[in-house]
Every structure is written in structure tokens, then in C-alpha cells.
């Protein structure tokens, strides 16, 4: 995750605890990943090429191969997203809907990687499968922790994902004006009760 987490942009810490300037290799990796996300989102996995990504990043194609080995390796790195969901053990079942919606709003608004992931996910099967894996691994544990029947956790996690991803698609990718104009508190007020119900209400 070192290549996608915003906090890594300042580089590692020096012995006295202050941030070191970014290394040239970090800047190169960042440029490659940014170009790759845009290219995969625009062209899909099959049509995107290492040469085109290198051109977008203004580097030689050999540098892309040096850092990531192959297009598959680059694709995996470009879409390696840590949702940083709070520890389920520290979540109150009564507040889980609001906590998750607030968390996802913060993520979408601070991290363009997630927007790129969503754009890739809706344009090609490889991106969609990557999104499946990320949400399965990171959202399902929350559903398992708070839902009344663990056997229903996968369906409840999927329903919750439909809400946060649907809002992200309309607000940050398609940019529907009414969705963009909603304040953060308005989004929370609309979505949090629905996500809460999906995760903790009795089966209908």
C-alpha cells in the first residue's frame, strides 16, 4: 500500500522523526501509478499498454517494467487499495451505519485512487474482480461482526456496498449535480440509516 496511501507522499521518517524528502524512485512510482489508473480507467485492462502508460508518465517503458515487472503486476499495484475501515471490534453495532458512511465519504474525498478504482471497475471485468476482492476482504468482516446471523453477512455486506458505491459513482464519477450538491451531513443523514438497516436489522 505504500504507493497509494496519501501519507507516504512525504517519504519515510528520518531518525529524529521528521519526514524525509521523497526519493526520486517514490516520485517515479507515483507517476507510473497515476498514469496507469487513468489509462486503465479510460481504455480497460486489455487495451491499455505499458508504452501508453509510460508515455503518459513521461518516462521510458523500461522503467515501468523495472518497477512492476508486467502489465498484470502494474494493474495489481495500481488498484491495491486499503479502505482503512475501522476495526470492527471497536465499532458500536448501533452506530456502524453512520461510522461506515462517514468513513467512505472521507476516503472518496481525500483519495483519488478510489475514484480511479471505481472507474476501472465499471469499464472492465478485471477491474470489477479487483473491486470484488477488496470489498470482500475489507467490508465483509464488519458485516460478520455486527449482523444478527453470520450466514447473511455476505449479502448484507453487498447491500451496504451498493449504497456507498452508488453514491460514489453518482457524486464523484458521473457527478450528477444533485448528488454533488448534497452536503456531507445530508449524505450521512440519507445513507447511514440504510446501511445500518442492511447490516443490523432482522431479515425481512
Key phrases:
204 residues, 2 domains, Arc Repressor Mutant, subunit A, disordered N terminus, 11 helices, mainly alpha
How are the SSEs ordered, and which strands pair?
Layout: H1 24-47, H2 50-57, H3 61-68, H4 71-78, H5 96-110, H6 112-121, H7 125-138, H8 140-146, H9 153-173, H10 177-181, H11 184-200
Please provide a brief summary of the model.
The protein is mainly α and 204 residues long.
Can you walk through the features of this model?
With 204 residues, this protein is mostly helical. It has two domains: 6-78, Arc Repressor Mutant, subunit A, CATH 1.10.10; 88-200, no CATH class. The chain has helices at residues 24-47, 50-57, 61-68, 71-78, 96-110, 112-121, 125-138, 140-146, 153-173, 177-181, 184-200. The N and C termini lie far apart (39 Å).
Amino acid at each position: 500500500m505504500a504507493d497509494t496511501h496519501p501519507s507516504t507522499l512525504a517519504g519515510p521518517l528520518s531518525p529524529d522523526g521528521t519526514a524525509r524528502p521523497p526519493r526520486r524512485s517514490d516520485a517515479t512510482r507515483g507517476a507510473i501509478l497515476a498514469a496507469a489508473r487513468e489509462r486503465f480507467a479510460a481504455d480497460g485492462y486489455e487495451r491499455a499498454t505499458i508504452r501508453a502508460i509510460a508515455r503518459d508518465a513521461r518516462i521510458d517503458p523500461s522503467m515501468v517494467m523495472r518497477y512492476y515487472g508486467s502489465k498484470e503486476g502494474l494493474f495489481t499495484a495500481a488498484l491495491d487499495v486499503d479502505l482503512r475501515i475501522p476495526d470492527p471490534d471497536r465499532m458500536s453495532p448501533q452506530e456502524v451505519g453512520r461510522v461506515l458512511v462517514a468513513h467512505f465519504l472521507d476516503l472518496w474525498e481525500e483519495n483519488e485512487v478510489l475514484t480511479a478504482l471505481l472507474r476501472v471497475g465499471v469499464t472492465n471485468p478485471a477491474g470489477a474482480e479487483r473491486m470484488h476482492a477488496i470489498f470482500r476482504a475489507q467490508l465483509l468482516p464488519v458485516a460478520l461482526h455486527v449482523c444478527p446471523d453470520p450466514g447473511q453477512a455476505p449479502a448484507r455486506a453487498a447491500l451496504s456496498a451498493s449504497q456507498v458505491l452508488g453514491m460514489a459513482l453518482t457524486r464523484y464519477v458521473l457527478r450528477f449535480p444533485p448528488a454533488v450538491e448534497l452536503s456531507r451531513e445530508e449524505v450521512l443523514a440519507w445513507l447511514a440509516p440504510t446501511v445500518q438497516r442492511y447490516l443490523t436489522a432482522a431479515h425481512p
